[in-house]
Design brief:
The complex is a heterodimer of chains A (110) and B (122).
Chain A: E1 9-12, E2 18-23, E3 35-40, E4 47-50, E5 64-69, E6 72-77, E7 86-93, E8 99-101, E9 105-109
Parallel strand pairs in A: 1-9
Antiparallel strand pairs in A: 2-6, 3-4, 3-7, 5-6, 7-8, 7-9
Chain B: E1 3-6, E2 10-12, E3 18-25, E4 32-39, E5 45-51, E6 58-60, E7 68-73, E8 78-83, E9 92-101, E10 116-120
Parallel strand pairs in B: 2-10
Antiparallel strand pairs in B: 1-3, 3-8, 4-5, 4-9, 5-6, 7-8, 9-10
The chains are: A mainly beta (110), B mainly beta (122).
Chain lengths: 110, 122
């Protein structure tokens, strides 16, 4: 199972919006509505931000939103804030009780 | 609140095995799958496998099959991940993470442990 493809880096100024993509195949991202996004600050454990493509867990700001088109899922962070600077990872169910992560994207708030 | 507490850092020699524990609280241990994910230094997340704490049944990534053993002790509500045949490439932080309810059809991985650093060095 190959890792999902994410851009290594993304950036935006405070208040702006940024979108991070996550490209897989029809066997993972495109085949299931089980895409999640995680935020990871340095030295910390990942935190769930989006699940099932578009759903936000309780406590996650509505500045974070998810979508999917075909084999590519996206995470959009609107109204960027300094504390959004972190690594972001996508994850997808890949069938046959397997999961796959993306390589991660480092988001920099300029 | 849901918390997953893992065992402490380990240093192992090449060829050895390591066993990491994960003790959750705040929910019924046998009611939710437990996943194991690792992260090599400066690298991304890598899914290793999951265990059904109720039945003991496991699924693992093809890369780790034959080398990873996931078990649980329901009497103390603790999950374990043992990795054998360690090489320097296995140096990583190993995380346990809660999955979806065992009786459900979801595919969620939500709460994570704090991570356990395993260093493989001669």
């Amino acid at each position: 199972q190959s890792a999902l493809t994410q851009p290594p880096s993304a950036s935006g100024s405070p208040g702006q919006s940024v979108t991070i993509s996550c490209t897989g195949t029809s066997s993972d991202v495109g085949g299931y509505n089980y895409v999640s996004w995680y935020q990871q600050h340095p030295g910390k454990a990942p935190k769930l931000m989006i699940h099932e493509v578009t759903k936000r867990p309780s406590g996650v700001p509505d500045r974070f939103s998810g979508s999917k088109s075909g084999n590519t899922a996206s995470l959009t962070v609107s109204g960027l804030q300094a504390e959004d600077e972190a690594d972001y990872y996508c994850n997808s169910y890949a069938g046959s009780n397997n999961w796959v992560f993306g390589g991660g994207t480092k988001l920099t708030v300029l | 609140q849901v918390q997953l507490v893992q065992s402490g850092a380990e240093v192992k020699k090449p060829g050895a095995s390591v066993k990491v524990s994960c003790k959750p609280s705040g929910y019924t241990f046998t009611g939710y799958y437990m996943h194991w994910v690792r992260q090599a230094p400066g690298q991304g997340l890598e899914w290793m496998g999951r265990i059904n704490p109720n039945s003991g049944g496991t699924n693992s990534a093809q890369k780790f099959q034959g080398r990873v053993t996931m078990t649980r002790d329901t009497s103390i509500s603790t999950a374990y991940m043992e990795l054998s045949g360690l090489t320097s490439d296995d140096t990583a932080v190993y995380y346990c993470a809660r999955g979806t309810v065992v009786a459900g059809t979801g595919r969620l991985i939500d709460y994570w442990g704090q991570g356990t650093l395993v260093t493989v060095s001669s």
